[in-house]
Amino acid sequence: MSMKPLPGCYIRAYQHVNKEGYSSVCDSSAGCPVVNGKNGPLTENEGSSVYCYCEAKPPVCGTISSSDTDPTQHHWATVYDGFQIGMEYSMDNSPKYMGNDWLSRITVNKGCQMKIWEHRNKGGQDFTCQGKYHYETCDRYDLGQVGDNEASSISCTCPREFDYVEYDIPTKNWVLTVDENDGIEIDRVTVRNPCYSGGHCPDQSLISTQTKTVTSSHNWSRVFEHGLSYSVETSATFEGIGLKEDVTLSVDESFTNGGSITKSETLSSTRPCVASQHTKVICTYMAYLGKIKVGYTIHWKDGSTTRGIYQGEGWNHDTLIKTEPY
User: Fold this and answer.
1) How far apart are CA 248 and CA 20, in angstroms?
2) Are strands 259-267 and 153-157 parallel, antiparallel or unpaired?
3) Among 195, 217, 105, 206, which Cα is nearest to 154's?
């Protein structure tokens, strides 16, 4: 009969199980009654599945109505992104705003699309009222091969498409915070130069040939948000410190809020270890694990944004040189 989410969250109640049918959305911490009003067409005591998310509220996708000739008689409902009806359950189930074979008129908001089918569970002929670039109306004469008063299943989505990522700190200014206690030794080279002839001895040098394989982890805390629709082909591209290639995270069956990867790399040093006359030089080639944490904003093509935090790791090199008389 009522919903009351915590601040920053929203609750969505659906007519049927598995997110099917009409729904009501409440994002007010003061609470919302479940009524056919501004928060959706669901009525009290009709919700059969309920979900709570602390992410972006789903946009209104469009409206469906059974007549465009007599506004005092037609049946209509406003539906949100992700709406679907007539799949497992008949459109004639209570509460019934749009009965089976009643649909005559569709409106979709910019960035959304309404798809209808001739039979239950997406069967038979289909038609899409497309509002990708602008608000669109499809009436009884514009319902394709499905036709007027013939729809038995409907879905409405506002699929987000990725545009770009903006980091709070430009990537060229990223600096690792290094823990000097978190280092590993790649190699240790000793060069001896016993020559002593009044400054006429050439330097002696060696170059390390050893390598060390290490890993670094990278995590983007939030990418795809639950409760919203994305195109199947939607993916988001991110940069990571020390990564030679951008990382692409896509919508898949294991739908996730964020994304993580672990990268392997081989560390080595090409810096020569040089000993001048009458010295012994010990060169210790070290690598230190550093970390970075920076906020980012994902910009979607519909103008909406998603905030997240990138946490990455990288390796800094250093050579410790110890010189002794020889």
Assistant:
1) 31
2) unpaired
3) 105
* pLDDT per position as a tens digit, 231-244: 877 889 999 988 88
Give me the helices (H) in the chain, please.
none
Q: For the whole model, what pTM was predicted?
A: 0.79
Residue 299 pLDDT: 95
CATH number of 163-325: 2.170.15
Both structure tokens of 51:
């979900």
Residues of the chain with CATH 2.60.20.10: 59-158
Q: Which residues of the chain have pLDDT under 50?
A: none
Residue 41 has which token pair? 């067409």
**Cis peptide preceding 95, ω within 30 of 0:** yes
Number of neighbours of residue 193 by Cβ within 10 angstroms: 19
Tokens representing 45 are 């005591």
Token pair listed for 252: 């898949």
Helix (H, G, I), strand (E, B) or coil at 157: strand
Q: How many CA atoms lie within 13 A of 34 on its CB side?
A: 21
Sheet holding 153-157, edge to edge: 83-85, 153-157, 112-119, 123-131
pLDDT of residue 72: 53
Which ranges in the chain are annotated with CATH 2.170.15? Answer: 163-325
Nearest to 230 by CA among 181, 173, 158: 158
The widest CA-to-CA distance across the chain, in whole angstroms, is 110
pLDDT tens by residue, 10-61:
999 999 999 999 999 999 999 999 887 778 888 889 999 999 999 888 999 9
Tell which CATH architecture fits domain 59-158: Sandwich (2.60)
pLDDT of res. 73: 57
Report pLDDT for 123: 96
CA dist 83 and 102 (Å) reads 17
**In sequence order, which residues have a C-beta less than 8 Å from that of residue 268 and are 6 or more positions away?**
186, 208, 210, 211, 212
Instruction: Decide if 249 contacts 240 (C-beta within 8 A).
Output: no
